[in-house]
Amino acid sequence: MQTVPDTALSARARKPDGTRVAISSPRGPFEVGGRAFVVMAGPCAVESEAQIDEAAQAVADAGCAILRGGAFKPRSSPYSFQGLGEDGLRFLAQAARRNGLATISEIMDASQLDAFADVAILQVGARSMQNFSLLKALSRCGRPVLLKRGLSATIDEWLLAAEYLLAGGNDQVILCERGIRTFETATRNTLDLSAVALVKQRTHLPVLVDPSHSSGRRELVIPLSLAAAAAGADGLLVDVHPHPDEARCDGDQALLPRELDELLARLDPLLSAVGRTLFRHAPRQRKAVAR
Ligand code: PEP
Ligand code: MN
To answer: What CATH number was assigned to the domain covering residues 20-278?
Structure first.
């Protein structure tokens, strides 16, 4: 099996202080990596203009800076909801703009790059982790990429996939652990926190955790998020839906808006215990009322 060479571009020794990925946002740029812990939140999929708007409002009100929402969904079955495609990206961008948020959305093919012009972070999903032509195209796109770990990918395979992005000239790479396949069936996947701690030691790239796809169960999202923060993760990618019972995709693992508030409140003291701070967006500017 191919292992990551000591000379790899992702090796921690190359940047002992860690990479900071710059995110452009309507309320000013900020970074993933470094001391701040960044929470990206939103529905698994953009389902309608009203749904993503309501989600964006909840995400902004909670103080998060990045709205997630898939428009091109990689579904196991071709008969499941595939996402709204370019309309979904348009609704995502509008909702984010109205609420002063940056965005993250999954790109499945290099031919979609133009449609993703307004998306701040390009997400490479677990199923695409070894889509090498996609990785090569994204290595030249000049924008931050979040690379999820493949469903059954080893840590070395994951880091070598990141190496494709770095080798092509993109150093704005964020890794995301989203659970791996094991014999366990009580959870959707098994969150591999050892990988988070190990990858933080082996690379200089920021590492996020997705507690939603890791567990598939809403009631596990807060405990797993706290564990991720304690293990050294640099942030979270978490599913939040205003009406999870009506979700067209992954409703069982989505937090309600009030549960997102609870998650952030519980993260605060834990992060200060490990020397980090929760990144909270500056309050939104309210329009001045003419008198
Ligand atoms: C997602 O985040 O929407 C997603 C499809 O996750 P994963 O690629 O980790 O399965
Ligand atoms: Mn999902």
So the answer is: 3.20.20.70
Location of structure tokens 């009030």: 258
pLDDT one-digit tens code per residue, 236-272: 999 999 999 999 999 999 999 999 999 999 999 999 9
Ligand 1 atom 4: residue of nearest CA: 125
Token pair of 281 as six digits: 């967006």
Given a contact cutoff of 8 angstroms between Cβ atoms, the answer to whether 215 and 189 are in contact is yes
- Which listed ligand is nearest to 107 at the C-alpha? 1
Cα-to-centroid distance, 220 and ligand 2 (Å):
15
Report residue 276 as tokens: 């980090």
Rounded to the nearest angstrom, the gap between the alpha carbon of residue 42 and the centroid of all alpha carbons in its chain is 10
Which residue in 148, 206, 168 sits closest to 17, CA to CA? 206
CA angle 46, 52, 58 (to 5 degrees): 135
Ligand 1 pocket, residue 213 CB under 6 Å: yes
Whose CA is closest to 176, among 237, 223, 225?
237
Give the C-alpha separation, 282 to 99, whole Å: 12
Q: What is the largest CA-CA distance in the chain?
A: 70
Nearest CA to ligand 1 atom 10: 126
Nearest ligand, CA 127: 1
Q: Is the shortest distance between the CB of 68 and ligand 1 below 6 Å?
A: no
The residue contributing the CA closest to ligand 1 atom 3 is 44
Mean pLDDT, the chain cut into blocks of 10 residues (291 residues total): 88 97 94 97 98 98 98 97 98 98 98 98 98 98 98 98 98 98 98 98 98 98 98 98 98 98 98 97 57 42
Tell me the chain's radius of gyration from C-alpha atoms.
Answer: 18
Query: How confident is the model at residue 54, as a pLDDT?
Result: 98
Asked if residue 104 has its Cβ within 6 Å of ligand 1, the reply is no
